[in-house]
Amino acid sequence: KGTSSFDDNRLIQLSLVGVKPGANGKGVVVVMKLRSLQGKPTTCYLWITLHKNAPATLGSIRPRIHKNRYCPDLCMASIHVARAIPRSQKPVMVTRKRPLPPRAP
């Protein structure tokens, strides 16, 4: 009664993974929370910027998350987000439609 611990309320995330688009619209930034520095909130986050192509980015995110023993749902969620970011950063090619020739009467 009256205890406020991690097991009771689950408000403090001990493991955290975030994937964001990189600066200038290029690359992917992976944010990970380090368990060893959880008592220091300002320095406990590790920011990794990846400027690779899409398959190489996914191939480098997956081992980093598994090596730090994050839960599998966080791993798959971050991979799905990382897969969508390079697609959204591609320039959109505008195709112009040619007007149809006039019909013969």
Key terms for this structure?
single chain, 105 residues, alpha+beta, Enolase-like, domain 1, 3-stranded antiparallel sheet, 3 helices, 16% strand, elongated, structural constituent of ribosome
Determine the oligomeric state from the structure.
single chain
Instruction: Kindly report the average pLDDT value.
Output: 80
Number of helices: 3
Instruction: Summarize the biggest pleated sheet.
Output: 3 strands, antiparallel
* Range of helix content: 25-40%
Low-confidence stretches: none
CATH class (first level) name of the domain at 18-87: Alpha Beta
Gyration radius over CA: 22 Å
How would you describe the shape? elongated
CATH fold-level label of the domain at 18-87: Enolase-like, domain 1
Element pattern in H and E: HEEEHH
Organism: Crocuta crocuta
InterPro entries: Ribosomal_eL28
GO biological process, one term: translation
Protein name: RL28 protein
Question: Would you give an account of this structure?
Answer:
With 105 residues, the protein is an alpha+beta fold. The protein has a domain at 18-87: Enolase-like, domain 1. Helix content is 34%, strand content 16%. It has helices spanning 6-9, 54-67, 72-89, and strands spanning 17-21, 28-33, 45-50. It has a three-stranded antiparallel sheet. It is elongated. The termini are far apart. The mean pLDDT is 80.
Concise summary:
With 105 residues, the chain is α+β, with helices and mostly antiparallel strands. It has helices at residues 6-9, 54-67, 72-89; strands at residues 17-21, 28-33, 45-50. It has a three-stranded antiparallel beta sheet with strand order 1-2-3.
